[in-house]
Amino acid sequence: MTIGSFLLHRVFYWHPWNPTKRLQSFERQVALLRFVGLWPPLEGSVRVRTAYRIYGWCFRILFMYIYTLTQVLYFVDVRDLKISLLIKLEIFNRKIVRIQKCVQDVECPLEVIKAMNNTWLIGTIFMAACYGTVTFWTISTLYEWKRQLMLPAWFPFDYSESLLVFIPVWLYQAFGIYMSATYNVATDTLETGLISHVSGQTARLGILMSKVTLDILGHKSSGFIPYNDLRKHNPKCMMCNVISSLTKDINYYNDSHGPSYGYLVELTYFHKGLLCYAREIIDIFNVSIFTQIIASVIIICMTGLRLLTGHYDPWATTGDVFYLLAMICQIWQFCYVGNEVSHSISLLIKLEIFNRKIVRIQKCVQDVECPLEVIKAMNNTWLIGTIFMAACYGTVTFWTISTLYEWKRQLMLPAWFPFDYSESLLVFIPVWLYQAFGIYMSATYNVATDTLETGLISHVSGQTARLGILMSKVTLDIVLKRI
Fold first, then answer.
1. pLDDT tens digits for 57-69?
2. Quick check: 440 and 392 in contact, CB under 8 A?
3. Are 70 and 164 in a shared domain?
4. What mean pLDDT comes out for the span 182-201?
5. 472 and 329: one domain?
6. Burial level of 80, CB count in 10 A (0-12/13-18/19+)?
7. CA distance 409 to 428
8. Where are the beta strands (DSSP E) in 152-301?
9. Do both 346 and 409 map to the same domain?
10. Which end of the chain is more exposed for a tag (fewer CB within 10 A), N or C?
11. What value does the mean pLDDT take over residues 288-293?
């Protein structure tokens, strides 16, 4: 996750996000969903929304359900598994009002830039993978014009006899495949975008909580958002409504116990609203995400099997590789945003544990007065070296035993010598011993150098952790003196 965050927010972070336009990162998803008939107009009348729903049903029936019906006999084909997509579309169609409300909640003043960048970039990667795969399939059928469709399909007539019949059928399937990719891109990136915003809000909650600590320490937290930030609420936002309904209590604690205590109560209410928002997203998308992940894993396994069994058509092989990458991107985006949420929550948990166990932490800090080498780093160095050494020497020993078990005057590894060492036993034994000693020396070099490197790195890690504990001791002393 650390490497992924570096790539996402250092290498690819070029988009100039505007914090005042918080739906900017969802523009592509909303545009695609509006085109395929899954995003009724928010400000439209009942008649307009009804007409749009009719358009959406007609669009799905023509280019999804009938298109799927033409391939019902070929569901075993690895490149076209539509069952998960149909389930996902049904969930979107039934819960579109709640989904639209979750997206509108992104307009809340509590937004963060990192979540906007995640939403836009993950969607871009997945869209490029999907449309790139579909485009390659289209080109591959045009390269060798054999009146062959991109995917196996059944029609109640022979479409290959006449060019006038084949071209409309080919165009219909091509458009159906692009619509299938559009449905997948729009729905999946919308889901991951909302989850990413939950992660961003969780991380922001941790930053805002650190403001209370800064106030206790007597620092001016001008870099943080002022106390009344959470009260500048959007009436359409779920999190803001939870906070605004309790503003009277917040003001009471602010006046009676001081601004820091009132702000802490306000953050507690914000945390409650964030949990409600996350629970709503989970309740809407849990079945959809689970179904899609299962289907994608099956497709990845089947595609990998096709590539391993091998076929001599370079176009088909390249198409399978593109499809495999698209499915890996689909799985990766869910894993990435899920890990981001877990990481943000783990930081909050660490802060909560620190506050609850401050006395025990003090005792641990007093016990840290030890030499520069910390025990954990020393143990890591020894354990990693032992495991690697056992693996290397075990492998070499097995090679040695395997050649002795069947005595065929055969060396452990293929080697060339300027003479025939297998003719005489007096010649073969020194050559065999020479190679055995060389292999053991090679293993020794590897073990010695690699474990030395990892040991030094482990000690750097241990010293870094010890530095953090020592720094926390200073912070604890300051906090306890002020309390």
1. 887 787 777 767 7
2. no
3. yes
4. 79
5. no
6. buried
7. 7
8. none
9. no
10. C
11. 82
Is the pLDDT at 209 greater than 60? The verdict is: yes
The torsion of the CA quartet 445, 449, 451, 457, rounded to 10 degrees, works out to -170
Query: pTM, whole model, 2 decimals?
Result: 0.54
Residue 458: phi, psi to the nearest 5?
-65, -40
In a domain, 361, yes or no: no
Residue 223 confidence class, pLDDT cut points 50, 70, 90: very low
Contacts by residues 34-43 (CB-CB < 8 Å, ≥ 24 positions apart): 35/182, 36/60, 36/179, 36/182, 36/183, 36/186, 38/89, 38/92, 38/93, 38/96, 38/183, 38/186, 38/187, 39/96, 39/100, 40/96, 40/100, 42/100, 42/104
Residues 6 or more apart from 438 whose CB is under 8 A from it? none
Using the 3D structure, point to which of 331, 355, 379 is the last residue of a domain: 355
pLDDT in the model for residue 255: 62
Work out the percent of the chain whose per-residue pLDDT is above 90.
Answer: 0
| Structural domain contains residue 182 | yes
Distance CA 224, CA 228 (A): 11
Domain that holds residue 283: 3-355
User: 118 and 257 in one domain?
Assistant: yes
* Together in a domain, 12 and 51: yes
Q: Are residues 79 and 41 in the same domain?
A: yes
Under DSSP, is residue 245 helix (H, G, I), strand (E, B) or coil?
A: coil
Residue 172 is predicted with a pLDDT of 86
Residues 136 and 178: their CA atoms lie apart, in Å, by: 12
80-110 pLDDT, tens digit per residue, is 445 566 777 777 777 777 777 777 665 554 5
Contact 226, 371 (CB under 8 A): no
One domain, residues 344 and 373: no
In a domain, 362, yes or no: no
Q: In the chain, how many domains are there?
A: 2
Q: Which residues contact 327 (CB under 8 A, 6 or more apart)?
A: 296, 299, 300, 303
- Residue 168 in contact with residue 4, Cβ under 8 Å? no
Please tell me the distance from the alpha carbon of residue 412 to that of residue 403, in angstroms, as a whole number. Answer: 6
Q: Which residue has the tokens 């509590």?
A: 110
Which pLDDT score is estimated for 111? Answer: 45
**Tokens at residue 389, please?**
């050494």
Q: Distance between CA atoms of 82 and 86, rounded to whole angstroms? A: 6
H/E element holding 19? none
How far is the C-alpha of 276 from the C-alpha of 102, rounded, in Å? 11
Q: Across the chain, what does the average pLDDT equal?
A: 69
Task: Among 355, 384, 418, identify where a domain stops.
Answer: 355
Q: Is residue 275, in this structure, part of any structural domain at all?
A: yes
The answer to whether residues 374 and 259 belong to one domain is no
